[in-house]
Design goal:
five-stranded mixed beta sheet, HARBI1_dom, metal-binding, nucleus, 3 domains, Chromosomal Replication Initiator Protein Dnaa, Chain: A, HARBI1-like
Length: 392
């Protein structure tokens, strides 16, 4: 601030008695501003030159909060490539060997270009595990935002084309293992999966006046939290049963699962022979029905854990700030694929391994039990009988 500016302010707002005091105040303020600008410039230069991530605190050690104001050069080459296993867990929410496995898988499908496949994969993963925009990630990795957009669509499209290599309905033998483990842990017989829907906000973060839309991801998982089937509804459709009716699973469920087996869903789904829901009634439930509902709720918790694990890892899902509907669906689909890919290579601490201590399940006489209502009542009676036997 020059002398003319200081005099102009004093003449307008002050009398002569206060001029000296205000003069000192203005000079002091100008010095602070100048000093802060110098500090910020020094900090930006240090980040660009050194790329030393160890200086960030634990609170800021997460993708999306690195204070980058201009495009950096060499961040990936000089820093990310030297990440340790601990760095990968902190920044990419996965292990280094899993990222390498993803690179090896994509080698056969990604076209060579000016940007290496290794860098593309790290840019792609950074986008998934953070809530950064294309522009912010571009600055961090020294790329234009259009390049980041291209990288995301290129890798996401390839993974989605191979979706059924990672998300597929289990074989009869695999279903058999699931129902043994679930019955062993929760005493709910013949259960081979769990269905629910997860809500995601879609819309611009910048325009605060527009209320975000909602999109539903319907998924079925097993006891290892692996997704067995996914279906992404249309934006704005928020009723689970309506989204279920539009999915392929609703038409193929009876072909996927034998009559004795079933998946579990909450009361928003319609009771089916192979989709068992809790008892609901305007009247009071019996003690047996309440016991059934309690075991049903505990057993169904697997799918909630699967959704939580995916959302904690892929922060991009917290608020999907994408305009194109196809890109929104692609993002959600790829998050599910990566969720399974990571579980295949790392497993999950959420899954409790237990010794199988009970038999396979229960046989259902189809000449007696024929309808969905009859099957649920049969299961209710069986669960209460087993509970009584154990107490006795």
């Amino acid at each position: 601030m020059n002398n003319f500016q200081k005099e102009f302010i004093m003449d307008m707002f002050l009398d002569s008695d206060h001029a000296c005091t205000m003069n000192r105040l203005i000079v002091a303020t100008a010095n602070v501003i100048s000093e802060n600008n110098d500090n910020l410039n020094m900090f930006g230069a240090a980040v660009e030159k050194e790329f030393d991530l160890t200086s960030f605190t634990e609170e800021t050690k997460s993708p999306g909060v690195v204070p980058v104001t201009r495009r950096l050069k060499g961040f990936y080459e000089n820093s990310v490539r030297n990440f340790t296993d601990a760095d990968y867990s902190a920044w990419f929410k996965t292990k280094k060997h899993t990222v390498q496995a993803l690179i090896n898988f994509l080698k056969k499908y990604v076209n060579p270009g000016n940007i290496s496949l290794e860098k593309k994969v790290h840019v792609f993963l950074w986008l998934m595990v953070s809530d950064c925009s294309y522009n912010e990630i571009g600055k961090l990795f020294g790329l234009h935002k259009s390049s980041v957009s291209y990288i995301f669509n290129e890798i996401a499209t390839i993974l989605n084309e191979h979706r059924y290599s990672f998300i597929s309905w289990p074989s009869v033998e695999e279903q058999h293992i699931t129902r043994i483990k679930v019955n062993s842990r929760f005493k709910f017989p013949n259960c081979v999966g769990f269905i629910d829907a997860c809500r995601f906000k879609v819309g611009s973060k910048r325009n605060k006046k527009d209320k975000p839309e909602i999109i539903l991801l319907q998924a079925v998982c097993d006891e290892s939290l692996m997704f067995l089937d996914i279906h992404i509804g249309e934006i704005g459709k928020t009723r689970k049963n309506r989204v279920f009716k539009e999915s392929t699973l609703s038409h193929e469920l009876k072909n996927f699962i034998e009559f004795e087996n079933h998946i579990l869903g909450d009361s928003e789904y319609k009771l089916k022979k192979n989709l068992i829901t809790p008892f609901t009634s305007e009247e009071l439930l019996t003690s047996e029905e309440m016991k059934f509902n309690e075991i049903h709720w505990k057993t169904r918790s697997y799918i909630g854990h699967a959704f939580e694990l995916m959302k904690e890892r892929f922060r991009k899902l917290n608020h999907i700030d994408i305009v194109k509907v196809e890109s929104v669906q692609l993002l959600i689909s790829v998050a599910c694929i990566l969720h399974n890919f990571i579980l295949i290579h790392e497993g999950s601490s959420e899954v409790k391994e237990e010794t199988v201590a009970c038999d396979d399940g229960v046989s259902i006489n189809t000449s007696i039990v024929q309808t969905a209502l009859e099957k649920r009542q049969f299961l209710c009676n069986y669960i209460n009988y087993i509970d009584t036997e154990e107490v006795g």
